[in-house]
């Protein structure tokens, strides 16, 4: 008997897009009986509903099974590969090159919901938790992300991002930032060390309150997209790497909906 569908369920057209990129069943041993599409449905449900793993509805596979696949795909890089494949398809569909030449970087401090590694206090935002430093293309699609203590400055977060991902994004010619990532010494060091050119987009003279800034608004919109996923309203994950995976999974869900 088919269960009643949820709004977060993968549609047939979305499943046709993603099925071929999911890891195949391991050879040997018992034949896999788990419905992988239902595993994906369970993960997307958790992201949008914001529930705990143990509170997944019982018409999904057992929560331990869903969680096991989520962590397994984190460890083998599946979520990042899915993000890359779908991002390239979205860019090509929009008439852009598969690889971006320009990007935007920013950070977001969020409260930490419970115990976990890498916590800290962001004195500027008055937030005790973690900071998400993300790099997005000019469409706001996620290129890479690092999650770290909120007490770490934006420049130190940018350094972490560059250490992990600069070698993968040599196609980038320009990265727009705000003033917290600026400074002649820092931007020169980033250029010399990693080959990235940072350009600070400054606020208009006399600006008070929030105002959409050219070039940089796309990354703010990406954070707004993440805000639709209640699991991302706080950082509930024990490990920062799992928090990063949640961002990739949310973007995979978003791009699937856009493509299909």
Describe the structure concisely.
With 260 residues, this protein is of the alpha/beta class. Helix content is 40%, strand content 15%.
Structural notes for this entry:
With 260 residues, this protein is of the alpha/beta class. The protein has a domain at 99-203 and 213-235: Nucleotidyltransferase, domain 5 (2-Layer Sandwich), CATH 3.30.420. It is 40% helix and 15% strand. The protein has helices at 12-18, 36-49, 63-75, 78-93, 154-165, 184-194, 217-226, 240-259, and strands at residues 102-111, 120-122, 127-137, 142-149, 174-177, 198-200. Strands 1, 2, 3, 4, 5 and 6 form a six-stranded mixed sheet that branches. β5, α6 (184-194) and β6 form a beta-alpha-beta unit. It is globular.
Question: Notable features of this structure?
Answer:
260 residues; alpha/beta; Nucleotidyltransferase, domain 5; six-stranded mixed sheet; 8 helices; globular
Topology:
Layout (H helix, E strand, L loop, with lengths): L11 H7 L17 H14 L13 H13 L2 H16 L8 E10 L8 E3 L4 E11 L4 E8 L4 H12 L8 E4 L6 H11 L3 E3 L16 H10 L13 H20 L1
Parallel strand pairs: 1-5, 5-6
Antiparallel strand pairs: 1-3, 2-3, 3-4
